[in-house]
């Protein structure tokens, strides 16, 4: 039904309601057929986004899981769904994930590689980092909620250092020289993990803001 604006106040009540309905858009939750399901999916994805930060700290590809998720949510057929993401945000998630990889690679190169570490020590540093990270999960530190994550990060850094020392010693270097490479690997792994996790945190903040606050 179409009513001329000049006759709005003289139109019947049903016509005024029709015009008001066109002028005032509904809240996003009222546009979907199943708002409760929409909110439940948003809650589950929020937990997944937070979990991706922890996964990144453990050395797992948490940022790339979020890249895949963002790409899928950007192509949802219903843009009115709460979990739908705009294409520009999917591209921003991709850029942040790539930045995290650059940070991790650069800090690793400045660690073992800058001091002339061998490929063997670099490989053992990666292996030691993974082993130390998972061991730290089970050991933990007496800090509520974040204890296992802190212990895992410390274990990953320590494991990288020990692996680099073993690799250099295995190659025939003296212990003092091997320790220098080990310290570089330790700090490189620590700084790289923190930098990459910050990128994962930014990804999570962007997506959560889009789901709940826009």
Secondary-structure map:
Blueprint: H1 13-23, H2 28-31, H3 35-57, H4 62-74, H5 87-111, H6 119-139, H7 147-171, H8 175-212
Helix pairs in contact: 3-4, 3-8, 4-5, 4-8, 5-8, 6-7, 7-8
How do you describe this structure in short?
The protein is an all-alpha fold and 214 residues long. It is 75% helix and 0% strand.
Describe the structure.
The chain has one domain. Helices cover 75% and strands 0% of the residues. The chain has helices spanning 13-23, 28-31, 35-57, 62-74, 87-111, 119-139, 147-171, 175-212. The model has no long low-confidence stretch (mean pLDDT 79).
Q: Stretches where pLDDT falls below 50 for ≥5 residues?
A: none
Mean pLDDT: 79
Q: What is the terminal separation in angstroms? A: 32 Å
Share in helix: over 70%
Order of helices and strands: HHHHHHHH
Number of domains: 1
Count of DSSP-assigned helices: 8
Care to count the β-strands? 0
Residues in β-strands, percent: under 5%
**Rg from Cα:** 26 Å
The largest sheet is: none
Task: Decide which structural class fits the backbone.
Answer: mainly alpha
- The coarse overall form would be elongated
What features would you highlight for this structure?
75% helix; 8 helices; 214 residues; mainly alpha; single chain
């Amino acid at each position: 039904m179409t009513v001329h604006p000049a006759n709005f106040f003289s139109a019947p009540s049903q016509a005024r309601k029709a015009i008001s309905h066109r002028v005032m858009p509904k809240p996003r939750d009222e546009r979907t057929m199943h708002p409760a399901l929409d909110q439940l999916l948003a809650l589950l994805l929020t937990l997944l986004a937070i979990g991706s930060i922890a996964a990144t700290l453990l050395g797992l590809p948490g940022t790339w899981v979020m890249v895949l998720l963002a790409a899928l949510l950007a192509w949802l057929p219903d843009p009115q769904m709460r979990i739908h993401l705009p294409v520009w945000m999917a591209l921003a998630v991709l850029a942040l994930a790539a930045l995290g990889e650059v940070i991790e690679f650069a800090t690793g190169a400045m660690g073992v590689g800058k001091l002339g570490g061998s490929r063997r020590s670099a490989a053992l540093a990666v292996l030691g980092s993974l082993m130390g990270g998972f061991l730290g999960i089970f050991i933990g530190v007496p800090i509520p909620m974040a204890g296992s994550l802190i212990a895992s990060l410390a274990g990953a850094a320590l494991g990288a250092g020990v692996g680099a020392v073993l690799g250099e010693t295995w190659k025939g270097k003296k212990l003092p020289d091997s320790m220098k490479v080990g310290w570089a690997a330790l700090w490189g792994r620590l700084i790289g993990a923190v930098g990459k996790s910050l990128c994962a945190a930014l990804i999570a903040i962007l997506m959560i803001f889009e789901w709940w606050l826009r």
